[in-house]
Specification:
Elements lengths: L1 H36 L17 H10 L26 H5 L6 H76 L3 H4 L5 H23 L16 E8 L4 E8 L4 H14 L13 E9 L2 E2 L1
Antiparallel strand pairs: 1-2, 1-3, 3-4
């Protein structure tokens, strides 16, 4: 039984030693083998030569004098020095890690900062100019609006004065054109004739006032003040225009066209008053550039 135990001990000791030895050899090969295959940098041979040789005159003296004195023996430094190979200097290696472009990299951020500052300033100037421009435009618009309002007020006042004057002229014309009801009626109806005369005047005035609201010539061209057109209008009892025709045309077709359009826009006219006791009424209207009679 002891021999079996001893044999088993020998069986694992040997592999253990082999494994330890293999690992040691492997570790040494990892450390030293790469150095054998590493290529050493080749440097040119560097020679040091002393240009000043103090020992040369002493050599010539020895040649001239066959018996040189021991004092003139050349010092040990006078011997020709053989050129020695100098090992690679590590200074170039020290110069390599120094980065040259680091300064240029540090300068670029400064330039970018300057550009950003300039870009930040330019929008402020542009905004100020834009605000000033908007202020000027608003002021100009306000002035223009005031001028337009003043012009409109002036035109409205002139139009009101013109309409008032026109109405007065129409009333005067109606008074002169309408015959007296007393002359046409008998003496027995003299009391009622005055009433009908007043009603007719009021009705004439209402018709002319209605048509005058639509009578306006455009200002794209000058109009001859001597132009006139006479239109006979037949009015129904409810005020609608039953018939119309030109009794007298003007010499300008455009003027006649605006007369016809004015009557179309003014239709219907005021209804016939029941006191007149007429189913239809016929009236003549004289159109001129500035008035209706």
């Amino acid at each position: 039984q002891y021999s079996v135990t001893y044999d088993s001990y020998d069986n694992w000791v040997l592999p253990l030693n082999l494994a330890v030895g293999f690992h040691i050899v492997l570790a040494l090969s990892i450390v030293f083998v790469p150095g054998l295959f590493r290529s050493k940098p080749k440097f040119e041979d560097i020679y040091t030569v002393n240009l000043i040789n103090i020992s040369e005159p002493s050599i010539e003296q020895e040649v001239a004098q066959p018996q040189p004195l021991p004092e003139t023996t050349p010092p040990p430094q006078a011997k020709p020095v053989k050129a020695k190979k100098i090992a690679a200097i590590a200074e170039p290696v020290k110069l390599d890690p120094v980065p040259v472009p680091t300064k240029a990299v540090s300068i670029k951020p400064l330039k970018r900062k300057i550009k950003k500052k300039l870009k930040e300033k330019t929008p402020d100037i542009a905004r100020q100019k834009q605000l000033e421009k908007l202020k000027r435009e608003k002021i100009a618009e306000a002035i223009q609006a005031e001028n337009i309002a003043a012009e409109q007020a002036r035109l409205a006042a002139e139009e009101a004065a013109r309409q008032q004057k026109l109405l007065e002229q129409q009333l005067d014309q109606i008074k002169s054109q309408v015959p007296s009801q007393a002359q046409r009626s008998s003496r027995n109806a003299s009391g009622s004739s005055g009433t009908f005369s007043v009603l007719e005047k009021q009705y004439y005035s209402s018709i002319i006032n209605r048509v005058s609201q639509f009578w306006a010539l455009p200002e794209f061209r000058p109009w001859d003040p001597s132009l006139q057109a006479v239109v006979i209008v037949t009015i129904a009892q409810d005020g609608t225009i039953k018939n119309q025709f030109f009794e007298e045309r003007s010499q300008d077709p455009t003027f006649d066209q605006f007369v016809r359009k004015t009557l179309q826009n003014a239709n219907p006219l005021p209804a016939i008053p029941p006191a007149l006791k007429k189913r239809q009424y016929e009236i003549g209207l004289r159109f001129r550039p500035g008035s209706i009679q």
